[in-house]
Amino acid sequence: ITEIGAFRLPRKTITKQQLAYEKIKEAIITEKYKTNQLLSSRELSEKLGISRTPVTEALRRLAYEGFVDAVPDKGMFVSEIHIEDYLEIYEIRLGLEGIAARLCAKRKTDELIKKMDSALSTYEKEYRKGNYLKAIHKDNEFHSLIISGSNNSRIKKYMKIIMEQCGRAVTLSASDPERMENELIPAHRKIYEAIAAGNSEGAEAAIRQHILDVMDFFTRYQIKHRYSL
Predict the structure, then answer these.
(1) What's the rounded Cα separation, in Å, for the pair 160 and 44?
(2) In this structure, how many other beta carbons lie within 10 angstroms of the beta carbon of residue 68?
(3) Domain co-membership, 43 together with 95
(4) What is the pLDDT of residue 6?
C-alpha cells in the first residue's frame, strides 16, 4: 500500500478509529489508493501505527459511505466511481441545499458571513497555490456553513448524510483547472454574495445553478469515459 497522505488532526480530539477513517478516506479521495485496490487492514494498521480493530471499524464506515466495497471472502476494496450514484446524490443536494441557501440568506448573522468569506477566500487562494486538498476542505466548509446557517435541524441531519457521500464527487468535480477557475470559483463567489446581501431567491438560484453545472459535468465525464447508466 502506498503512503497515506499527511492529514493532520489533533490526536487528543479524535479516536483511533476516527484517525484511521480520516486518513484512509483522504487517500481514497486523492487517489493515492486506486479504484479496486485491496485495502488490507493489517498493512493499514502497520502504516498508521494502530491496532487492526479501529482500522477495520474505519473500513466498515467507509463501506457504508460508499468509498469502499466489502467483497465476501476477499476483503475490502476501493469502490469504483459510479457517475449515476453521484447524479442521484446531487439531485438530492439540488433540492435540500437550495432550500438551505434560501434560509441561510434570511437567517444569516455577521459571524456566519465572516466565516463564509474566510472559507471562500482560503478556498480560492489554496487552489491557485496548487494545494488542491486544502481547497477541497475549504469548499466543504463553505457548503457546511450554508447548511448550518439554515438553522433547520432536519436539513442539517439529512445533508450530513449526503455530504459524507460527496468526497470523491467533489474531487472529481474540481479535477479540471480551467473549469475550476472559470466556473467553480465564480459560482461560489456568486452564492456568497447573494447570501451576504440577504437575497434569498438569488442564493437559492445561484446554488441550484452551481449544482446543475456540476451534474452536467458528471454527465459529460461519464460520456467521455464511457461509463454506463
Answers:
(1) 27
(2) 23
(3) no
(4) 40
Query: How high does pLDDT run on average in the chain?
Result: 88
CA distances from 67 to 5, 85, 99, 129, 157 (A): 16, 12, 27, 28, 20
pLDDT digits (tens, 9 = 90+) for 15-62: 999 999 989 987 887 778 988 999 999 999 999 999 999 999 999 999
pLDDT at 136 over 90: no
- Same domain for 110 and 201, yes or no, is yes
Sequence-separated (6 or more) residues with CB below 8 Å from residue 17: 54, 57, 58, 61
Same domain, 36 and 128: no
Q: Dihedral angle at the C-alpha atoms of 33, 2, 44, 141, nearest 10 degrees?
A: -50
CA–CA distance, 147 with 202 (Å, rounded to integer): 16
- 169 neighbors 90 (Cβ within 8 angstroms): yes
Beta bridge partners of 39: 76
Q: Based on the domain organization, do 193 and 133 belong to the same domain?
A: yes
Q: Which residues contact 70 (CB under 8 A, 6 or more apart)?
A: 59, 60, 63, 76
- By the 8 A CB rule, do 55 and 44 touch? yes
Kindly report the CATH number assigned to the domain that includes residue 93: 1.20.120.530
